[in-house]
Amino acid sequence: MDIVDAWAQHPTERFAQQPWLATLLRWTKQESVAPSPADTLAAADAAGVRTSLLSAWHGPAGALITNDEVAAMVATAPDRYAGVASVDLDDPMGAVREIRRCVQELGFVGVRVVPWLWNLPPNDRRYYPVYVACVELGVPFCTQIGHTGPLCPSEPGRPIPYLDEVLLDFPELVVIGGHVGYPWMSEVLSLATKYPNFHIDTSAYAVHRLPSELVEFLRGRGRSRVLFGSNWPMLAPAACLARLDDLGLDDEAKGLFLAGNARRIFKL
Hints:
With 268 residues, this protein is an alpha/beta fold. The protein has one domain: TIM Barrel (Alpha-Beta Barrel), CATH 3.20.20.140. The chain has helices spanning 13-16, 21-28, 37-47, 67-76, 92-104, 115-118, 128-137, 159-169, 185-194, 212-219, 237-241, 251-265, and strands at residues 4-8, 51-55, 57-59, 62-65, 81-85, 110-113, 141-144, 175-178, 198-201, 226-227. The protein has an eight-stranded parallel sheet. It has a two-stranded antiparallel sheet with strand order 3-4. It is globular and about 45 Å long. The protein starts with a strand and ends with a helix.
């Protein structure tokens, strides 16, 4: 079975030492998130993941996982990994140049900004040059929606009005909201109904814990709009998929969820 993990990362020591990880470690009963390269590949193998999208992380204090560090990890297994860039919102022109470099020179397939890390919702003006670059280069913008695991404000991840305004302003922009969007599921599904370029990934959730309204959407009219993601190493993809059959997906919906949607949207 073809599986694409739409949200994973290979943490650096800088990332692993962030104080906001403490809550996530408590939830996931881990002592640290510092896998070796072999651990990251083995976790994908254990779940049958053929392609993992590895994300860079950049926040107000600087890069926690640089784009070049992601590129180096991708180079260790280019048939198994693809890169997702992140940029400095406080340097708009630098961000545009970096997105161009990552896509055109490094072969990255998307851009991710995590709003709670910046405490800035996605309709903030600092994001807008990033959106223009994504549209020009034909890559999706990936973000986080819903409450935060870390003890940080959740409001930047609320879909309406923030993402609603972005999708109105950039009708050509493809947006993937990661981490499901709970507790604002009605808002998430209303955006997915309203905007054909808005998608949802299930990272940070084992599939048997997905909200029932999202599962219903995935089974039916939303089967082309939901992507599998794990959030490795906070969650292992095998643990996320252990009860996949509980979702009651038909073969088409299962294939689209596990890989087909991601391969189409990211042009893998």
